[in-house]
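User: Modeling request: complex.
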Amino acid sequence: MESPTAILLLSCPDAKGIVASISNFIFQHNGNILHSAQHTAESESILFMRIEWDLDSFMIPREEIRNAFSPLAKKFKMKWNIHFSDYIPKVAIFVSKQIYCFYDLILRHQMVEFKMETPLVISNHLDLKPMAEQFGLTYLHYPITPDNKAQQEEKEIERLKKYNIDLIVLARYMQVLSPRFVNEYPNRIINIHHSFLPAFAGGKPYDQAYQRGVKIIGATSHYVTETLDDGPIIAQDVIKITHRDSVEDMKLKGKDLERIVLAEAVRLHLDNKILVCGSKTIVFD
Amino acid sequence: MESPTAILLLSCPDAKGIVASISNFIFQHNGNILHSAQHTAESESILFMRIEWDLDSFMIPREEIRNAFSPLAKKFKMKWNIHFSDYIPKVAIFVSKQIYCFYDLILRHQMVEFKMETPLVISNHLDLKPMAEQFGLTYLHYPITPDNKAQQEEKEIERLKKYNIDLIVLARYMQVLSPRFVNEYPNRIINIHHSFLPAFAGGKPYDQAYQRGVKIIGATSHYVTETLDDGPIIAQDVIKITHRDSVEDMKLKGKDLERIVLAEAVRLHLDNKILVCGSKTIVFD
Amino acid sequence: MESPTAILLLSCPDAKGIVASISNFIFQHNGNILHSAQHTAESESILFMRIEWDLDSFMIPREEIRNAFSPLAKKFKMKWNIHFSDYIPKVAIFVSKQIYCFYDLILRHQMVEFKMETPLVISNHLDLKPMAEQFGLTYLHYPITPDNKAQQEEKEIERLKKYNIDLIVLARYMQVLSPRFVNEYPNRIINIHHSFLPAFAGGKPYDQAYQRGVKIIGATSHYVTETLDDGPIIAQDVIKITHRDSVEDMKLKGKDLERIVLAEAVRLHLDNKILVCGSKTIVFD
Amino acid sequence: MESPTAILLLSCPDAKGIVASISNFIFQHNGNILHSAQHTAESESILFMRIEWDLDSFMIPREEIRNAFSPLAKKFKMKWNIHFSDYIPKVAIFVSKQIYCFYDLILRHQMVEFKMETPLVISNHLDLKPMAEQFGLTYLHYPITPDNKAQQEEKEIERLKKYNIDLIVLARYMQVLSPRFVNEYPNRIINIHHSFLPAFAGGKPYDQAYQRGVKIIGATSHYVTETLDDGPIIAQDVIKITHRDSVEDMKLKGKDLERIVLAEAVRLHLDNKILVCGSKTIVFD
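Assistant: Request completed. Predicted assembly structure:
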């Protein structure tokens, strides 16, 4: 068993002494730093940092670490958060009718690739219910119509809160979430879009790609914001295609991309490797 | 020495007997087919084909092949062209101030990677003249202002025609060609755009990419049409970037992409491997 | 519903008239060629060809096509085979304890990505039996020891023949098949090896890769021959790694590669796009 | 103008307080850390670190920094080195007859992609002399025979020392350097090998790759050690090929790979981003 670690993610205006202050804080309380990465975006004079240390002999009890660190954070005007590696996040997966991204996430969960609790499944359709139940997952059905959307979202939010959900994954969920919903989970809703954003945002990206005659197609995972397909990008990947590929062929090839790119984003989030800064992500891979 | 070959590129409405008719035409005149590829886009019922055969013992003299093939082409309503592998195309390279794509093309020409005659260089600036002359290339200078653009383009066209130019390569040429110019060389002007089109068309694509926070940047080579950055795409490639990459870093990484993607398009064109169909290319690689 | 097609795969010494003869054969019996690709390896003077035509109005009944084509094949000394697109191959998947490649194949089968009948599962262990049965698959258990290996393989072969198995997929099957077994299914057993062959053949390729400090890892799918990890390569892919990746990280990243590369090989085989020539494959993608 | 920075590269047995001690050292002397990355290889309990800080208001004069840091280094048993960003390394490029890697490096030098002084060129042939002189480079000719190799290498070493060469780049230099030579420049000789090592080490890797029928070819840049093609790998990249690619096609495609992979290694070295640990590199990209 690996011993638990603490992970500090932060951004702040660049200044002297930040790395020294943080590493002293850890060292003086007998922590051993395992990984640290710090980067200063020179054009903007912002410092980004991720630092992870062993909690084994760390002298501050974990429930007091946040308070203990707070003065330092204040001094340097940090936006920050501390996570613990042995906390198992609670995840809700939103699905519609498409199975492959959902199935892929479940498979990875079964193979313990992800550090997450048995996920909750929420859908506007019943199609994937048997599949979810086959794996012993709770499946909640909230059909959405233009008329009931606001109400249904309220019920969903209520449930998500009841389950203490930390992360929502839209595994090809075919509904646009309202700003009200999105703002409940800022930078905690991950979507997969089946194009290389910003190319081919919106509907039917493979048809768009076919019409344009591109030689490469892509997939993009991103945090959901109020604007469709416009949130901070977490991961992207691409695959070459040729004139022989029909739209159907592109969909088939794209499925593998989408699964991998979504899984990568989920893993990075669960491993606390992502810092969101404005409309962009800093990914400490 | 390889013996010369004939290369037939065609598209036509799908019908029975096309491949048989063409291969009979070649066989009955004692030609040996070296490569053939045929593809039918089922959604559109269009047949695309590239077929290459040895001219060594072919019984029709090459200057008569077009006439001899013409009835078949008419019968099947083909759009077609025949090329000969030992014809060395005449190329003009348009440049402005950026050196790297130009230099790369010259290097490849020197290393005989391309089947092209010593190219003509045309520029709206004088910056690269010494470089061109160092390699013994003719460098023609046509400074462009909003006022003289139409006139200068006429002069350029006149020169291009005098030199019997077959292909124009825009190696980071920082002027938009007028429709009048473009229509003189349909599907014979290749441009390199430093983004993964259709994302980040227009100016400063790396700045746009930086602002959007993409995780991958790309380059696109395409034929030039009247609409900026919208012509048939020939080749694309991408490279991963991270949050640590500044706009300058992206430009540096992008240079290699641009050089490779432009060179690939030029090579495919010179090897007669591209068929343009509407707004798309069929690339017989 | 797409109408059925015939697919002819062949190799033979290069000669004049081969393409013409074959396309005439198809045209004269009222077939419509949908795709054809022909390539001559000039260094070896061997012609490779794949040609696919519509059976809809083809005048030769399918059970007589082989006989009808036979004289042409003889004339040009072809190695050849004809497949029909509506024949659904019977597949056996061999597994041991590792689940991910197996699971991936089953998922793709469920999503109708593959043209194959509900596969038979054969294993030397019982670990994956519940999973197989959850999907309604027949699971046959043949434990292997050094002493009983020859006998167990005989029983397996007997069963495979009884089920008329066309293709065997080794989805991380941790036993080396004997020459006797391999020779029963020449070029019909596909294996996945978790390295970029020929680098790191044999056991523990990720440990080997870690020791060597490579910056890219790969996966290779190939037909199984008598020599371990040495058969004709069908598909390969790679992924970049860094010094931060432990052997465990490499295994995790490699899993996605292995799944995709194995699936690609299976799909190419099921779509009759592979021609084996000596120790190499010709893949008509 | 960017202000100069100091870059500390180090490895040492993992222990508590290393990051804190180093960042305190920098902070207490009024340095501003711009980038830092630290990684602990858990399996081996070794800590690797690269840390870069602004020298602008740093209170220790640069010629005294090494001495000042020395006690800390001793305390933690570090292998370490400090570099300064405004030091321009002196590079020698070794070539034989092949031009493309050499030409690529010169182009990049001209475009100020590399932080290096106008390089010295050393060759066992005269072929590239005109090219070198065209760019104003000093070209030294040391023909090598089995008989004179040891003597010629001595002369080369003498010259390299006279020119205070920091880095040697073998740009397709077709001679194996003796252990005596290699040991003069440990981890300071970069070679490009035209395969994805460890596959196809030794001569004629493209022919080997063609024979084996691989679907991907690669290139590898590495530090030179006494054992051929076995030194610590710095960078690798690959490109897909098909059965249509002859050995000549592979060479052509490989050229682009080789140029890019060699340039990447040279840039990483010149930017002080590589730490060699045993037979592997740690690359702080």
